[in-house]
Amino acid sequence: MAPRKRNGDSHADTGRLLISCPDRPGIVAAVTGFLFERGANVTDAQQHSTDPTGGTFFMRVEFELPSLGARGAELESDFAPLGARFRMDWRLAHAGHPHRLAVFVSRDEHALVELLWRQRAGDLRAAIALVVSNHRTLEETVRMWGVPFHHVPVAADTKRAAEAHQLRLLDDARVDTVVLARAVAWHADDRVLVYGNRTIVFS
Length: 203
Prior knowledge:
Layout (H helix, E strand, L loop, with lengths): L13 E9 L4 H11 L3 E9 L6 E9 L3 H18 L3 E6 L4 E7 L4 H12 L4 E8 L5 H6 L4 E3 L7 H14 L8 H8 L3 E4 L2 E4 L2
Parallel strand pairs: 5-6, 6-7
Antiparallel strand pairs: 1-3, 1-4, 2-3, 8-9
């Protein structure tokens, strides 16, 4: 049950820049100009400032760039001086490299089934790598979707061992996200930027 691919929606050439830096004039022009000079087409741009006079500036830019997969390292290297000039904390994400998710469930199937359906419909640009539960209630449901299911019982005297087992499962599956349904979708689309004790969501 692989995610349905929309027409022309492979995301192989879709990139996202997530930026935070001290606010000052010229940031948007510098970033979009950088992308334009390299043949990229900006398809979505969102920004927010905590205070236009001395606050912190946040920006999410989604763009299309032919052969992004092969040019990603070069693009990051070229962007580094601009990032340093504006004192940016930034990262480049490739939409063609979907996030790998782990879903932790108990007996309630609502959030899990929502994620599975969204993945199948192509609305969740991420791969559900495994499901972990302290009960076997949803094991058959998960396996019907072709997703690995791991039963890890948790009791007061086995809690530490169970947590160690769960962490090994995450490492083995190369998982990078464990969150709820809506937050998973935001994270999969690189709409979440953590800054200090704040979380910025570009909705």
